[in-house]
User: Fold these one by one.
Assistant:
Number 1:
Amino acid sequence: MIDALIGGLLAVLQWKAFSFMLIGIGVGFWVGLLPGIGGLTSLALMLPFIYNMTPVEAFAFLLGMHSVTATTGDITSILFGVPGEGSAAATVLDGHAMAKKGEAGRALGAALMSSLVGAVIGALALALSIPVMRPLVLTFGAPELFTLAIMGIAFISSLSGQGGRGLVRGFLAGLLGLLLSLVGLDPQAAIERFTFGQLYLWDGVALVPFIIGLFAIPEIIDLAVRGTSIAGDLPQGNLSSGVWEGIKDTFRHFWLTVRCSLAGTFIGFMPGLGGSVAQWVAYGHAAQSARDAKERSGFGKGDVRGVLGPGAANNSKEGGSLIPTVAFGIPGSAAMAILLGAFLIQGIRPGLDMLDKHLTLTFSMVWTMVIANIITVAISLFFLNQLAKLTLVRGSILIPFILFLAFIGAYTEHNHLGDLITLLVFGLLGYLMIRCGWPRAPLVLGFVLGNIAEINFYISTTRYGITWLLRPAVLILIVLTLLAILYPLIRFPKRKATMAEDAV
Amino acid sequence: MKARMDIRFFLALGTVLLAGYALYSSIDWPLRTALFPRVIGIPLLLLALTEMILSAVGVEKEREGHAVDFELTTDVDPVIARKRTVAILGWTLGFLALIVVIGFPIAVPLFVFLYLKLVGKEGWLLTLILTALSWLFIEGLFNRLLHIPFPEGWIFSLLG
């Protein structure tokens, strides 16, 4: 095992593999920055280039590229409020709010360092967890996966607002997201649902225009209304010290970063849940770490913990999703499904061989993820000051470019004008939700999990009838869901009472 | 108590109608297609009705219901804010119209040029440099390098 660990490192450090990794990092860096050109697309586009590479070189190239897109996707989210990747949307909430407060450097520093910590934890999980996780994943059937999806939505819905009214709005948004996910052909009977006779809607509401619209359009409107730069007329601190402060924040809230990384790893590990879910669950957990209602109200307004959680989970989920791909040949995400194609191109069969015959290759993947992230963070730190200065550029100069990026990003989903209409419709919905105090996070999570929830709900009811509700793992998850719903109602009034007593 | 018909009320009303439509549509579907929409639609309808009634009677304690999300700026005079909101929505829709009529490759630099000149009131040099940059970006990266199939504008299709 130790031999394979060292062998994996040496294999990645060979000049050819290392050079391919650097090229992959370069491509991934820009792909992550540009909204709409997703890591998924770039993985698919780069697949034909690996035919003449050795397995170690091929995975250094592809994984190097893929690990970096998750990190740099946070940069556009923070600076412009436009998610560079669908999986970087949660960072917009607090990261962009920090940029507006003149703390872009700090937000970027926190995002990058937490991404690095997340990537290392994800890679460690990949290295250590295969024998431990195998029995766990085998106990998770359709009923457990459905309950897990509902738990995720309940978790974020209950934490997205304050008091009973906040709870109502959180669940309204979550359910609305679930309903929107039902648009398109029914996965069981292929019957059209809510398509209004439009062929474009047969595949459902497009994810990228949905997310870009929901997050970017309200930010653009707000920037135009303020008539200033993103950071406004606030005095700018020293950006270098801001970046350093963000790095220190990662270690100030180290356990939160670790917990969110572990959550990301676990979600990445569960086939089908995916990266868009990991970031929101981590965001919900970060919001939960607030000590009282007043502190929690700071989330969404520029709390650094709202950047650390999603940043860490976003990267750790990559290691997590590699576990079932490598060990069982079951891709943990769409990106991993493409990577499975790379295995086939290289003539390698995922499964037991990867833990035995090709163990060095497995460890080379672990090392690639760690080294690629270290290099990215180091390179990014050199450019952060320049990048953060973009928040000082006049809004009237930035707006046409942000709008152009949002439109192009949305259009690249299906290369269809319907993508642009989706962008505007959900942009308007996002704006209305903010004006009315409805949280957007549960809407996105409901939308992302809708399909998984429906399929697993259908399988559960047809296979087990009502008895699936009595399965031990389901019961545990239901209790956790109820706790998640009741927790804010129990916790905050109690704290309020304690604070009132203290004041007396 | 006087009923309030503000934007919150109308957003909740819209959701009530949406949930109602979802449930109504599911009547004609077979059970396996209709099952999940109903499981989602019923609680959505009930919660949206609750939110609509609460919005109408105006029950909202200080800070209650406050979302973990960003808040729109309140520093600008509401009349100016409304004017600017309408203006940026107009520009956004105008951009979409430009794309439909003349296609992405021309619409993008034209939009950047017009916005910088008319709204930003920027100087000619900066406007022209940024317009050229936007054209290079769309033509070089998206068109030539990534070969994204941009549809030609409606006007060009008409001209044949």
Number 2:
Amino acid sequence: MKTCIIIIVLLYTKLKIKKMLLRKKKGQMQMMETIGVLFIFFILVVFGMIFYFKYQQISFQEKQEELVATRAMDSTLIALFLPELQCSRSGAEAEDNCIDISKLEGLNSVMSKYSNEYYFNIFSYSRIYVEMVYPTNYNWVVYDHEKTKINDAGDEVPDWEFKEPTFFVVTLRDEMNFFGDLTGHDSTYGFGYLVVEVYS
Amino acid sequence: MTDIFKNRGKNGQMTMTFNWIYVLIAGGIILLFFVGLVVKQKASSEQKLSYDITRILESIITAATVSEQTKNFIDTSGLVDYTINFDCEIDGGSFKNIFSGYGLDTTSATVETPIEAIFAPKKVSAPEIVVWSLPYELPFKVIDLLMLTSSNTKYYVLADPSSTDSFLTELQNITDDLNFEFVESFDEMEVGSNYHIRIVDFDYLPVFDTITDGGPIPPLLEELSEDQVSAVSFMADGTVNYYYREENDFQIENVWGAIHIFSLDPEERDAAKYGTIFAGGADEYMCNMMKAFKRLEIVSDVYLDKFEQLKEYYTENGVHDLANQDCRIFLEGDNSVENLHAEAKTCVSDVAGYLSAGCTNIEGAAILVKELNENLYNNNCVTLY
């Protein structure tokens, strides 16, 4: 009888241990499953984030380029109609797309003088120059404000990623024989183009 | 055995309840995350929209400024829910202290305009904006002054219909496509569907109803709020006064004295005079004129350089050529351009200078430059401007 009870107790204990082991295995399996789900979830989140940031980066860059292009257009428009450059004839309306050479000659120094307090508010970081192609090749820098920074070596280096140039054909009016001094023959009108380079 | 089953049942119930709580918390967090994302996205897209609007407005204003004498009607029907604020303040006195810009109300999207002279109402909320650029000449072209108004800003011009004032006649002809109405009395002024009413008083004598400091506002305009009614009154001596509404009376805005209009040719489209009609108030007018004077300082510097070149040119070429000698005589000893440059410099140095008699010398200096140019033109010389 005693032996019988011991056998029954032993069998019951064995069964319990077996069940416990099985339950433990099942728990481990569930744990692995949860870890797996979490792992995939986080991978998806990371993928989503990478995709989102990449998209944001591209759209930001596109927006920046769009803004620079708009700024270049606006700057060109303003530069073309500057009273400081335009050909005028007393009270009459100014000649369209015409630049007065005599004004252009001294404009760079005036623009430099008022660059920080005035013209920077209009043209910001940009370079404006006039290239004459007829009667001879010549150029005048009107405004030059390049975006720069000081590097570790203490040198001033350019600090812009891209440059948006716009070109506009203009006539150049010379009333004081400037062309004659350059080419040897008189001519009241020449032509060339106005270049506005915007830095970003 | 019964105890074991009982415990196991309790355990199962516990697990089930725990699972549901877990699902609820996790679901709630996920829901909150998406709600936050939507709110954030909404705020950011609204901000983006306001920045886009101001950027487009900036391009429109730039293009309108350079298209001289042209009125541009801009459809802003998509913006009727927004109010565009125009501001120009001289905080401290000189050109350097100007704070100027425009932007959408209740958003941070603003465009600074330290250079552009924009004469506009303080607030615009309309389905259509009108921009009109007029060149300011003193005596050469200095800057394009931009008049900006809206389809629902009404201008009541109080004037004697028998007046022979050439500016009034021009105003009547030129504003027929704008929201202008010429009236003789306050009783003719109605609110209608307008957002702002500006009374422009040309009745110098006065023959009819007129705007006075402490005087009543037109009775039919009483239903409007205080910032929706304003007035500008032209004096017989060529100065102007601005008025704002306080309760049911008009109060003078420029308590420091009447504002002088600096212009040379009142017969032709007088940009500075038109500016007084469209400017939001006295401060805004002076602030924008200060920008014009700063530009005058610079442009006169360019002409100063051209003047020296002309002098040099005629000195070199006037030795053998009699015609050139005449041109040289006009230029020699003339310091009108230099004076004009100095006057402009004085005007922008201090707002008090703008108001004082000191700045009014600018007109005299400009007349001398005009005379010099006319002499050069009439003698077939190269002109200054």
